[in-house]
Amino acid sequence: MADVEIQPVAGRIGVMVCYATARQEWLRALEVAAGTTIGEAIEQSGVLQAFPDINLSTQPVGIYAKKKTLDTVLRARDRVEIYRPLVADPKDSRRKRAAKKEAAQGA
Questions:
Q1: Do residues 78 and 18 make contact, with C-beta atoms less than 8 angstroms apart?
Q2: In the chain, how many domains are there?
Protein backbone atom coordinates (compact mmCIF):
# COMPACT_ATOMS: atom_id res chain seq x y z
CA MET A 1 0.00 0.00 0.00
CA ALA A 2 1.40 3.41 -0.96
CA ASP A 3 1.80 6.14 1.62
CA VAL A 4 -0.98 8.68 1.47
CA GLU A 5 0.18 12.26 1.64
CA ILE A 6 -2.22 15.02 2.49
CA GLN A 7 -2.14 17.74 -0.14
CA PRO A 8 -1.73 21.20 1.39
CA VAL A 9 -4.71 23.55 1.39
CA ALA A 10 -4.36 27.26 2.16
CA GLY A 11 -4.37 27.80 5.91
CA ARG A 12 -4.24 24.05 6.66
CA ILE A 13 -1.38 21.67 7.45
CA GLY A 14 -0.98 17.90 7.39
CA VAL A 15 0.07 16.16 10.63
CA MET A 16 0.04 12.64 12.08
CA VAL A 17 -1.17 11.54 15.52
CA CYS A 18 0.09 8.22 16.83
CA TYR A 19 -0.24 6.04 19.90
CA ALA A 20 0.85 2.49 20.59
CA THR A 21 -0.04 -0.08 23.19
CA ALA A 22 1.84 -3.31 23.76
CA ARG A 23 -0.45 -5.00 21.23
CA GLN A 24 -1.67 -2.32 18.87
CA GLU A 25 -0.43 0.67 16.89
CA TRP A 26 -2.71 3.59 16.05
CA LEU A 27 -1.76 6.18 13.44
CA ARG A 28 -3.98 8.83 11.87
CA ALA A 29 -3.18 11.43 9.23
CA LEU A 30 -5.03 14.70 9.75
CA GLU A 31 -5.40 18.00 8.02
CA VAL A 32 -5.73 20.72 10.64
CA ALA A 33 -5.91 24.50 10.62
CA ALA A 34 -2.60 26.33 10.85
CA GLY A 35 -2.10 27.29 14.50
CA THR A 36 -3.57 24.04 15.85
CA THR A 37 -1.97 22.81 19.08
CA ILE A 38 -0.94 19.29 20.00
CA GLY A 39 -3.91 19.00 22.37
CA GLU A 40 -6.38 20.11 19.69
CA ALA A 41 -4.94 17.69 17.12
CA ILE A 42 -5.18 14.81 19.60
CA GLU A 43 -8.84 15.65 20.23
CA GLN A 44 -9.59 15.93 16.50
CA SER A 45 -7.82 12.65 15.68
CA GLY A 46 -10.23 10.36 17.55
CA VAL A 47 -7.47 8.65 19.55
CA LEU A 48 -9.14 9.54 22.85
CA GLN A 49 -12.29 7.71 21.76
CA ALA A 50 -10.31 4.72 20.47
CA PHE A 51 -8.25 4.50 23.70
CA PRO A 52 -10.33 5.86 26.60
CA ASP A 53 -7.56 4.94 29.07
CA ILE A 54 -5.34 7.76 27.72
CA ASN A 55 -4.98 10.47 30.36
CA LEU A 56 -3.43 13.60 28.89
CA SER A 57 -2.99 15.14 32.33
CA THR A 58 -0.53 12.40 33.31
CA GLN A 59 0.81 11.00 30.02
CA PRO A 60 3.50 12.99 28.24
CA VAL A 61 3.18 13.93 24.58
CA GLY A 62 5.74 14.95 22.00
CA ILE A 63 6.71 15.50 18.41
CA TYR A 64 9.18 13.06 16.88
CA ALA A 65 10.32 11.70 20.28
CA LYS A 66 10.85 15.14 21.83
CA LYS A 67 8.54 15.91 24.74
CA LYS A 68 6.30 18.92 24.24
CA THR A 69 3.35 20.51 26.03
CA LEU A 70 -0.26 20.21 24.87
CA ASP A 71 -0.28 23.90 23.90
CA THR A 72 2.63 23.54 21.45
CA VAL A 73 1.61 24.81 17.99
CA LEU A 74 2.06 22.25 15.24
CA ARG A 75 3.94 22.66 11.97
CA ALA A 76 3.34 20.85 8.69
CA ARG A 77 4.29 17.14 8.74
CA ASP A 78 4.70 16.96 12.54
CA ARG A 79 4.12 13.53 14.09
CA VAL A 80 2.33 13.91 17.43
CA GLU A 81 3.09 11.05 19.83
CA ILE A 82 1.33 10.11 23.06
CA TYR A 83 3.69 8.25 25.37
CA ARG A 84 2.73 5.38 27.68
CA PRO A 85 4.22 4.88 31.13
CA LEU A 86 7.28 2.63 31.17
CA VAL A 87 6.56 -0.99 32.09
CA ALA A 88 9.96 -1.40 33.77
CA ASP A 89 12.45 1.11 35.10
CA PRO A 90 15.43 1.05 32.69
CA LYS A 91 17.92 1.46 35.54
CA ASP A 92 16.47 -1.50 37.44
CA SER A 93 16.51 -3.60 34.27
CA ARG A 94 20.17 -2.74 33.64
CA ARG A 95 21.11 -3.63 37.25
CA LYS A 96 19.34 -6.99 36.96
CA ARG A 97 21.14 -7.81 33.71
CA ALA A 98 24.51 -6.85 35.23
CA ALA A 99 23.84 -8.98 38.33
CA LYS A 100 22.81 -11.92 36.17
CA LYS A 101 25.97 -11.55 34.04
CA GLU A 102 28.19 -11.40 37.16
CA ALA A 103 26.50 -14.51 38.60
CA ALA A 104 27.02 -16.39 35.32
CA GLN A 105 30.71 -15.42 35.17
CA GLY A 106 31.28 -16.37 38.81
CA ALA A 107 29.73 -19.85 38.44
A1: no
A2: 1
Cα 75 → chain centroid: 16
pTM for the full predicted model: 0.73
**Which pLDDT band, with edges at 50, 70 and 90, does 2 fall under?**
very low
- Tell me how far apart the alpha carbons of residues 13 and 39 are, in angstroms, rounded to a whole number: 15
Q: What is residue 1's predicted lDDT score, i.e. its pLDDT? A: 43
d(C-alpha 12, C-alpha 31), whole Å = 6
Confidence check: pLDDT of 70 > 90: yes
H-state helical runs in the chain: 38-45, 47-50, 90-106
- Domain of 77? 12-106
Please indicate, yes or no, if residue 4 is contained in any of the structural domains: no
